[in-house]
Amino acid sequence: MSYPSTVQAITISKTGGPEVIEKREIPFQGAPDHLVVKVQYLGVNFIDTYYRQVEGIYKASGFPFVIGEEASGVVVALPTDEPVLNDPDYKKRGYKEGSRVALNCLGSHAEYVSAPWKTVYMIPEPVSTLTAVSALAQGLTAVSFMEEAYNVQKGDIIFIHTVAGGLGLLMTQLAKSRGATVIGTTSTPEKAALAKANGTDHVILYKSEDTVARVLELTDGEGVHAIFDGVGRDTFESDLRMIRRKGTLVTLGNASGPVLPFPPIKLAQKNVKLLRPTIENYTYTPEEALYYGNALFSLLANGTLKTRIFKEYPFTADGVRQAQIDLTSGKTTGKLVVKVSD
């Protein structure tokens, strides 16, 4: 199999609003220690907007900058680097030309991607490339964070912000499979119904209810064992009021902006554990990446985890612009994807 010397990619030439997103032709060459993947689907995530925004939390390495961190497709070229080919961890993956894979690396919004092999996950039957891309980033987050950031156990009471989003739905399903009680927030009755259909025990409509008061009521004043918060700045103070003594607060996103600096002594009021983890540091070694990749795809294959596609967008500048607008509007449920090829 072969690949072209130029590809179409979704890029930005400067930071700004969605209007700075463009589709352009760029040179392409696979690195000797990388896999080359022909992309079928792209996953749309909040981190894509963080690179684009003027006040973005993450900074582009240069312009034009290819956005995106999540894709799925088919391997068209293997590494040629001898140390990689002889690496025992590489051999465990079983990559072949034609293998169906999902990948989690920066610069993925393109027709072809050159990706470090550690970031490329084999897709087992019966999981499709569409399901894989709808689950990879959020699924790896769910399985690793709910094992290492806070190991969810039977009998735990878990709180999940934005419980009807792509990550919230997967975290709910995983927590319920472990025997936990799940409390979550969302914005509309329609989203609440979806969250309940995916296992959420108690859904709080944060726009019309007092979230803290409701959580304390549901937990007899004790609070929850763990909070998974992808909102950030706007919910952090409430989190400290809802967490129980010796509870764990996992802040994992910045939808409302990053948490503001605060004196650590605030955590001493309840001996709270606070973490701000990333997928990359839970899948840092090849062994860790393989472990969590296998865990995720096993849960998808056996039906424990089920993804929901909110909408499929075209591989155009307008399509990706609209996807980012929709994602940040707070009106979506489940996963937003972009179709690149058959």
From TrEMBL:
Pfam families: ADH_N, ADH_zinc_N
Annotated GO CC locations: cytosol
GO molecular function, one term: NADPH binding
Keywords: NADP, Oxidoreductase
Segments forming domain Enoyl reductase (ER): 16-338
SUPFAM superfamilies assigned: GroES-like, NAD(P)-binding Rossmann-fold domains
Regions that span the bilayer: none
Protein's UniProt keywords contain NADP: yes
InterPro entries named among the record's database cross-references: ADH-like_C, ADH-like_N, ER, GroES-like_sf, NAD(P)-bd_dom_sf, QOR-like
Signal sequence bounds: none
Key word Nucleotide-binding present: no
Superkingdom classification of source: Eukaryota
Record-given protein name: Probable quinone oxidoreductase
Organism name: Suillus subaureus
Lineage: Eukaryota, Fungi, Dikarya, Basidiomycota, Agaricomycotina
